[in-house]
């Protein structure tokens, strides 16, 4: 018969074994859950931030395992049942339905995913990575022009500005002095009607405060014997300023016609637009992170690249676009209709920069350029495959 101390020791060993095997099993579940999560959930969910769907950190504490099972299997069924939490999530994320995983994940798979969420939620926050070193292309890009304060300009520039200002001031002073000397010398001749009709006389009158040269003189002469209920028409010329402006417009119109339409030395609006767009494309091309940067990628057709693109698609895109590209939450990728362009460069940009307003996450930083080109080429290879249960066409035919 075993002593009480031996029984106690055996019980302690058994308890330790159970705890160790249980912890090992939980860890193994989390490892398996991470694989399932990355293959099905990571495209739309993050632990710490809302992406297409909500952040999942501590979601097991807020909702419970049973609720998570139901939501993962068929979120829309839970929404239709009126579940308050499911409806709140559905409304918050623009009524974009989460794909139903009841047909592709069993209860054990979902348990593994929940185990991974619990483990990831308990982990310490990840420290933000240091900014990447400046690339050669970024270093080679011309530095943006910086404004320089006037007082920071070289002394020679200050001297030139001062000299020009002094010359202008001297010219004004000389003109004023000449005017004050010459005008008294002319005496009563300034009032002669003959002098007042000359250019000099008009300038003198304008400087003296007489604006007749610009406004003209009002005449009290009736233009005709017309009388409309006491309203009569006087023979007044158009104001000189109006006529001068009219003459200027005539000269401008002739010069405009010769410059743009006869000699063709100037660029018309269409040409200016095309030139500005070309300049903008060159500037955008210097920044690889600019969505407007022009790219000229060719579709990859070799089997290795397409197989790699397929693997990337199944891991990252199938959750929203279907295993065969038939479309679920996202649009159908196998027809001729495209929302954001069907050229390989258009698809590449959509994959790289995403369409956050439509729930399409940007994949730059998660996939390399080669990987994005491979998956873009694979998507184009799906054209015309006509998978079952394909989603209706969206966008424009191309």
From TrEMBL:
Protein name: Cytochrome c oxidase cbb3-type subunit 3
An annotated Gene Ontology molecular function: iron ion binding
Signal sequence, renumbered to the chain: 1-27
Domain of life: Bacteria
SUPFAM superfamilies documented for this protein: Cytochrome c
Family matches, as Pfam families: Cytochrom_C, Cytochrome_CBB3, FixP_N
Membrane spanning residue stretches: 159-183, 244-263
Domain Cytochrome c: 28-121, 304-383
Claim: Zinc is one of the keywords in the record: no
Keyword set, alphabetical order: Electron transport, Heme, Iron, Membrane, Metal-binding, Signal, Transmembrane, Transmembrane helix, Transport
């Amino acid at each position: 018969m075993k002593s009480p101390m031996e029984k106690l020791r055996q019980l302690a060993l058994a308890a330790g074994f159970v705890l160790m095997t249980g912890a090992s099993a939980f860890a193994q579940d989390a490892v398996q859950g991470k694989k399932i999560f990355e293959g099905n959930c990571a495209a739309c969910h993050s632990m710490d931030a809302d992406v297409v769907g909500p952040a999942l950190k501590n979601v097991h504490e807020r909702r419970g395992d049973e609720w998570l099972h139901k939501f993962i299997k068929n979120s829309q069924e839970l929404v239709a049942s009126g579940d308050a939490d499911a409806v709140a999530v559905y409304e918050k994320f623009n009524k974009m339905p989460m794909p139903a995983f009841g047909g592709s994940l069993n209860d054990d798979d979902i348990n593994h995913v929940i185990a991974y969420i619990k483990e990831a939620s308990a982990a310490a926050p990840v420290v933000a990575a240091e900014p990447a070193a400046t690339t050669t292309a970024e270093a080679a890009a011309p530095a943006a022009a910086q404004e320089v304060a006037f007082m920071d300009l070289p002394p020679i520039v200050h001297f030139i500005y001062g000299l020009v200002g002094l010359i202008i001031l001297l010219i004004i002073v000389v003109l004023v002095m000449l005017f004050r000397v010459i005008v008294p010398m002319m005496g009563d001749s300034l009032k002669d009607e003959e002098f007042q009709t000359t250019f000099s006389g008009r300038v003198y009158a304008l400087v003296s405060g007489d604006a007749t040269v610009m406004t003209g003189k009002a005449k009290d002469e009736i233009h005709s014997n017309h009388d409309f209920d006491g309203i009569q028409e006087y023979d007044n010329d158009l104001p000189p300023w109006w006529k001068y402006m009219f003459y200027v417009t005539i000269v401008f119109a002739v010069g405009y016609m010769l410059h743009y339409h006869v000699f063709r030395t100037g660029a018309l609006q269409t040409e200016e637009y095309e030139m500005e767009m070309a300049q903008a494309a060159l500037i955008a091309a210097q920044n690889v992170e600019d969505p407007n940067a022009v790219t000229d990628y060719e579709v990859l057709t070799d089997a290795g690249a397409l197989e790699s693109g397929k693997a990337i698609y199944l891991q990252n895109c199938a959750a929203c676009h279907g295993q065969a590209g038939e479309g679920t939450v996202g649009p159908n990728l196998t027809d001729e209709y495209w929302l954001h362009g069907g050229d390989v460069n258009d698809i590449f940009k959509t994959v790289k920069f995403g369409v956050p307003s439509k729930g399409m996450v940007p994949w730059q930083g998660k996939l390399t350029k080669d990987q994005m080109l491979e998956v873009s080429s694979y998507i184009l290879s799906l054209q015309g495959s006509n998978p079952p249960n394909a989603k209706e066409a969206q966008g424009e035919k191309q």
